[in-house]
Amino acid sequence: MFFKIIVSALLVSTVFSRRVSINNYQQKELTVSITGRDDIKMPPHSQIPLDLEENWSGKISGCSEMCEGPRTEVELTLGAEMDQYDVSLINGWNLPMKIVPQNGDNCQASVCTPNMLHICPDEDRVLNARGIPVACRNSPMVFKKVCPNSITDENDRPAKVHNCHAEGYKVMFGQ
């Protein structure tokens, strides 16, 4: 009887969670922030599997040397029948990022992979202690041109929020 309860509990937890694979394709270590979780250190070219419960809603972002500043974010809401996701630049840009649904019907990736540091206006550049640009504050006109399918301001919602139901998602930094 005890064994049946344990197996049933495992099946229920498996059915009500989804796998999100976090991938660091950068040449440097990243600190990854996930809503409701402790920050995770990821070595270069690494992957971390993450199980998120059904109805989880939050953001995933990463940073390298300067974590107190603008960040590219993936916003994800898992639903029983439909998920919503996007790449958001509302808080700025610091890393190329995308989210790709895995095993879903009519699902599209949300992507912003260009390096914005070369085109960021001087007044929006965030510099590290050595004076090297590491991020770009929200610059909607530039962001809209370079990443037209990403959310650059609140007016972009809901048109640029993707909807689908997938078995899981792959979040990628740097590819």
From TrEMBL:
Protein species of origin: Brassicogethes aeneus (Rape pollen beetle)
Keywords, sorted A to Z: Signal
The keyword Transcription is assigned to this record: no
Signal sequence interval, chain numbering: 1-17
Top-level taxon of origin: Eukaryota
Protein name as annotated: Uncharacterized protein
InterPro entries assigned to the protein according to its UniProt record, in alphabetical order: Osmotin/thaumatin-like_sf (IPR037176), Thaumatin (IPR001938)
Keyword Ligase: no
